[in-house]
Design a protein that fits this description.
heterodimer, A: alpha/beta, Rossmann fold, 6-stranded mixed β-sheet, 18 helices, 22 strands, 23% strand, globular, B: mainly alpha, ABC transporter involved in vitamin B12 uptake, BtuC, two-stranded antiparallel ribbon, 13 helices, 2 strands
Amino acid sequence: MTEAAGAPAGTPVGTEPIIRLTGLRKAFGGTVALDGVSLELRPGEVHCLAGENGAGKSTLIRILTGALRRDAGDYRIDGRPMPPTLGPAAARAAGIGAVYQELSLLPDLSVAENLLMGRLPARLGVVDRASLRDGAARKLARLNLDDVDPGAVVGELPTATRQLVEIARVLGDDPRVIVFDEPTTALSGEEAEALLGRIKGLRDEGVAVLYVTHRLEEMFEIGDRVTVLRDGAVTRTGAMREFTEDTLIAAMVGRTVDELYPTAGAVAEGTPLLRVRGLRPPGSAHEVDLDVRAGEIVGIAGLLGAGRSELLRAIFGADVPEAGTVEVAGKTVPTGRPRDAVRAGIGLLSEDRKELGLLPELTIRENASIASLRGIGSRGLLSRRAEAERVDEVLDGLRLRAGSYDQPVSTLSGGNQQKVLLARWLVTDVRVLLFDEPTKGVDVGAKAELYTLIGDLAARGFAIVVVSSYLPELLGLAEEIVVLRRGKVVGALPAAGATEEGLLMLASTGRSTGSDGTA
Amino acid sequence: MAQLKLVVRENDLPPGPRPRVIGWSEVVGREGGGLVVLVVLFGALALASDSFLTSGNMANLARQWAVFGIIAIGELLVILTKGIDLSVGSVVGLTGAVAAQLLVAGFPIPLAVLCAAAAGVGIGVINGVLVAYAKLPPFIVTLGMMGAARGLVLVITDANTIQPLPDGFSAIANDTLGGVPNLFLITVVLIVITGFLLRRTVFGRYVYATGSNAESARLSGVPVPRVLVAVYAISGLLAGIGGVLLASRLGAGVPTSGESYELDAIAACVIGGASLFGAKGSALGAAAGALITSTLNNGGNLLGINSFYLQIAIGVLILLAVAFDQVQGRLQARRSP
């Protein structure tokens, strides 16, 4: 490919963009998710979208595919302006398809039924099996997936194959633009490689690809151009070859750690309060050791799918580990049962508050007391007054904003729900707290409050482990940061000297020094 | 439910959420809705029929309600955990037959009653273990048990009614204490105990927590499997007590007794404010629900209304109760952020 004078670097000659977004703006309540974002997607080109969690990538994709309405900005397909009310069906009709990380296939149906769902060939309402099979086979053939049986049940296929079926389904609509959102997260190295090969094939057929990933090496392998988002705005856009891993990371991060975070307290010397040895979470190939002293905050960094949540769940016994031991204050904790972990003094605040934390029908006070009812009640009887005395003090101390502690917990905002779950452990005698993405879905003001709380808890002698995808948070909170990559500890470094760039490099490549990422 | 402070003013609040307007429905709750229906029903029947409020008819109503009420509160416990117990009707038949057989064989009354109750608990424990440890769906487990237990009744009775039973046994359900039917007193005591269990014990809170979100409860250290076994066992026990009382009232072990009682019990829970999605409902509500259906039947008889129409009325009532819950839930969702 040669470059025409005046055209942006990396632009193939004579190709008009299929999609042109200019000055896109989107806010959720008071939070601005996108502010003046522009993006062009050209045929026969893989365009990578880079940025940290919360940078606005998902919002941009959802506006592109019609799942969200934009507040302001111009959206053109082939030069035709699209109305702000553009819906998913209209976007699909205009030739935009998307393959998401969470697949949208129906697991109990066959490949063929999934591929043709919504347009099942039928006579008088009876599905025509022969043409169903033929239609599906045609779609699979387009991706050279001749070895996939259209009659196979989707749920029984390996993840990689399911991903390909999903792509085949999106391709079936003959899209001119395909968005891939973290497609390789659940795939093995070889499977990911094969998938990238197919995406290149699509590109060579003239499809415009928008590729979103956390994995830098994939961007360099497949990307023609890249747009970097940070805090809802574009920081850099240009040809992939203009970047190295270092400059790309710098463009993604480029932020200073501000006053949000508390100062570290004194860490107790001596034996660690939490001692994990050779712990292997289910499905992981690697054993993990971890030591956390009283008063210490240890951060766990890693990319999506690196096994961070799995590690916390194994320590807490939410899942039964395949091997290893957990000790609290020198005593071995029986693994595999949350009840034993709680008794031994471990508490887990899980990432998915709604599914794995809250009891939505119960009141705030009942949610906060559920883990300590044995201590509050005597002989199995429950005194509501004793419950209120014990719990309200803790809730007050967390500055929980609620009209009444008797209202259902589901009426609270995300940050306040997180405080209720924290209160649940503080009411107990827990001394080790495991936080999994503690500020996910929490607005900025409440975040700062949570950081202060976590800092205070450490100062009071708790041993704390924080998993977060938001690196500034880890650098600000933790004294030591452990980096996981595909279930394996690839580094443990003091937060004092660490940089976001260094951590990201370690998490994505397993190497701690700069590299020659540009091929 | 006691606080009647209607509006919390903005000034009273720390900065944060909007003032919460506490509406009528939140104060009385859906059980309250059931009580309102009950009062209206009693008033209307008292006006429409001279014989409704007579002591004879009241005692009659109390006896009709008793067994349904007892089974309904057992069913409620299971429903609170997001489960369902379809076997209670068959357990009523089985325990009645067991008690009758043992009595006919010459066992003393207390022993026969204990054995029958134990049979109810045993079936409940089997249900509970299959649900909690084998992780089978409660609907399927108890559907299977419903058939199996009914078959067992027919086997041990050879499909014959077992009688005569000793007078002392019939007296349990048919005597009165100070003019109040024993059945009524027993039922009230069981409702109070169950209500206490749910509201004032750790176990009761665990029941609601398990129904609200079993995985969240487990991660908080709630022994979810044990809670599940216990609720099915209690449901079996209460159905067993209901079965013994029914046999005592009839003076016979009738192999087909208790048929379709499971549906009446579920209906009573729903009318009384329980949600089949778990964690919502109370013992008083379920008992009130059972009383509403019993009153409808009783009043219908007095007024000479065709019982087929009564079935329609009860069906409509269930739909109304659930619709009311949905509307209220939606209103609440709109009000909260």
